[in-house]
Amino acid sequence: MRDYKIPDQLKQFITADTIVVRSPGRINLIGEHTDYNEGFVLPAAIDKAVYVAVEKNPGTRLNLQSVDFNESIEVEIRDIKPVPGHWSTYIFGVVDQFIRKGQFVTGFKLSIYGDVPLGAGLSSSAAVECAVAFALNELLQSGFSRKELALMAQAAEHQYAGVKCGIMDQFASLFGKKDHVIRLDCRSLEYEYFPLELGEYVIVLFDTMVKHSLGSSEYNIRRSQCEEGVMLIGQNYPSVHSLRDATMEMVNECIGEFETAHRRCKYVVEEIDRLQKGCEDLQAGDLIAFGKKMFATHDGLSKEYEVSCKELDYLVDNVRNNPAVIGARMMGGGFGGCTINIISKDMVEELVAKLSEDYKKDMGKELKHYLVNIEDGTSVIGR
Ligand code: ADP
Ligand code: MG
């Protein structure tokens, strides 16, 4: 593990008894909308993280302090309940998970600070949950494994934030490894690291600064279209239980007449395959071939899966023929958020300046960008 510094923002809360934990945000290189189809994803933890400082309180009182929201909360453990929309809900959700697992949770003080941009698609919420889960595991000596903590963090998000997310975000935060991506099998939770040697390139995210409200309803529609496809394939191939099990031949044979479902399922089956081949590219050190697959993912998401939007398409189309950009695609569920780009280091400044100007002119919004490095997952950084 690398040596990560305790941020200055938390130093005032640290005493001789404090444990400090860092848990990062995440990106996903390839493998979008594959998680709920029991496929693979390829995330990595980044150098933007959430930090918590915890120490025991006598009794059963929780004292929570958010640096970023400049707010403190005091509550008895027996009184915690979901407060969706409030930062404390992610912390309560994790405490609730420890209790449900039969852990005795003592009172504690917890101070939290982070530099993962909120709501930009880098999973700041998962970073919060994982930081808290890891810190409590240390504080209470509970002995949960990283995998158990990831599942508890995910359950906290489901039950206390009301967001039915997959496991990728929490897994990536907890299992990240410097300069590697994680190929996670969303069915078995088996995983393997692949090196991402960027050399003269860097990863840059462009934030559309939009979040179209279509997102959640369309997400549910996509899920049911995939289920419909699986049902149709299952009539001829009973061993197919998810699109993970399907081939393009099956998709063509069984869903051919259903134009929309066919396009949706084609994207998913191709994306799962693309991710596997992308891992081979990484092993061979062929970043150029990997980057081309990112563009192909974007095209599939935009034209076949139809979860892009004009802002995301604009940002990808604008860099597509730029020789300094070897790969770009929308990242996340869609309808807003960020694009992820692999860009030649020397050209970033110039490209950002030009793209920001164009985006402002054509889309009427300020473009935000984040340079990200791939870092280790959750760890204790001070005690
Ligand atoms: P994201 O895509 O970043 O996960 P979410 O809406 O799921 O977006 O989660 C963002 C929420 O997570 C914030 O509104 C806040 O409640 C919580 N959060 C994220 N970072 C912090 C932080 N540094 N301190 C306290 N709460 C945080
Ligand atoms: Mg979130």
Number of domains: 2
**What is the gyration radius calculated from CA atoms?**
21 Å
- Give unreliable regions as ranges: none
Q: What is the number of strand segments?
A: 13
Distance between the termini: 15 Å
Strand content: 15-25%
What ligands does this structure carry?
Answer: adenosine-5'-diphosphate, magnesium ion
> Strand order of the main beta sheet, please?
5-4-6-3-1-13
Average pLDDT over all residues: 97
- The general outline is globular
CATH first level of the largest domain: Alpha Beta
What is the fold-level CATH name, i.e. the topology of the largest domain? Ribosomal Protein S5, domain 2
Which structural class best describes the helix and strand composition? Answer: alpha+beta
Helix content: 40-55%
What's the helix-strand series?
HEEEEEHEHHHEEEHHHHHEEHEE
- Largest sheet properties: 6 strands, mixed
